[in-house]
């Protein structure tokens, strides 16, 4: 971890949310001698299913999951989709599949072109490098160097389950080349995933950046601390107010949760500055509950607007997955692979020649990912087709003024028909892989889902509507920019119109990156810390 001497001048910084980005911001400030209080709604990260990666499915609907659900999706047969999000020290990094993907350099050049100076690939590439402790070889051409000395372990060298070798051969059989490092000079191709693990166990940014400081008494961390709202006075943030009363009233908190046991104190915590890192679903809700957001909407739900920022809660978007599940009829699939991940390969692929970068990122699991409506044999595996350049945009809206009022999450899945077509191409490719020799002949692979041939586009559409799900990469709801719909200033991450308040998490992305969003969220955390410490 980089330690920086900077002038602390007795200021108190409150960081809201001990997730991917918040842990980096809080840890970096505290390591530099600042007085920091880190507030986390969830509890301690002691559930063994957090560190043992193959058990990550146990965390869904658990005390560590906010357990959010979308509103019925108009363009996907009215389905309601579960959105797990981390509510625990470590945030969503404690629940995720641990995959480390920087994204495509063009993603960040697009951010810069959209008015976010300082966020182009040439700006953020070195930040990724500083974060990483990568165990693989450097990129052959060294255009995008990999980091070797950073605080985040990025591991490509782990025990493989044999099915993944055959999945790579199946991808090659349908024309996708093997790529040894998708975080290096080229993203396209089929690859082994790089994981944020240390000695085979999950390692979150909380573990790397904050835990050692807690042990050294250099930071205050409060768990079960659900921030109700920010306190604003004279155009500046002056503190935060915690939920008062029974924490079980709060959306998503169940009686057995650690957060529920710590009854909301209603404490007011004074702060000279507040860094909001509650993630793409909660940061906009906290802003809106505090009177910062679209004024008309706030009045509708009984909140007096303080700053009219129409972009808060807009621009919600997500990546999508669609499963192809196959039974292995001639060999046993090793499901637990000791302590290793149940997902070890993915591929980046362009659905058509018009794409300037991959628009699909299928991901593979050595287990059958049956949803609640599906049943089938246990000796099976999943080739999830995946869309990672979505055009559809949705919103997050409140239904009332308090954290007890459930919010409405509406990603507008398939509202833009181009999303369906990219996902269709990825889905057809996954089905072709199941039929290719390395899987069909060597494993006796036979499709379980979809259940039939799907001879027409209508039948394909029906399966897509019935089985499409989230890739867990919601972003964009407090996006950076300088236009009237922007929420934060790209140069400082300060919220437009409020002094002393910044947002530093996945919500600031103007567009989602091409790939999983944990590494980009960590990069945002590190950039935010550098801004606060005067390092850039
Ligand atoms: C199931 C799942 C699998 C995923 N798989 C991957 C993957 O393999 N690779 C990858 O790159 N990405 C993955 N992601 C996405 C990635 O984890 C997120 O993009 C990233 O963690 C977002 O970081 P963040 O800092 O914005 O928010 P988070 O890490 O979600 O942190 C937000 C924190 O704020 C806290 N908080 C929220 N509201 C309040 C409040 N009112 N008061 C106090 N605290 C509050 C939350 O409890 C949480 O700890 C996955 C996500 C999920 C959920």
From TrEMBL:
| InterPro entries reported in the protein's UniProt record | FAD/NAD-bd_sf (IPR036188), GMC_OxRdtase (IPR012132), GMC_OxRdtase_N (IPR000172), GMC_OxRtase_C (IPR007867)
Q: Where is the Glucose-methanol-choline oxidoreductase N-terminal domain?
A: 279-293
Cofactor(s) required for function per UniProt: FAD
Instruction: Kindly state which keywords UniProt assigns to this record, in alphabetical order.
Output: FAD, Flavoprotein
Q: Which family does it belong to?
A: Belongs to the GMC oxidoreductase family.
- Protein name (Swiss-Prot/TrEMBL): GMC family oxidoreductase
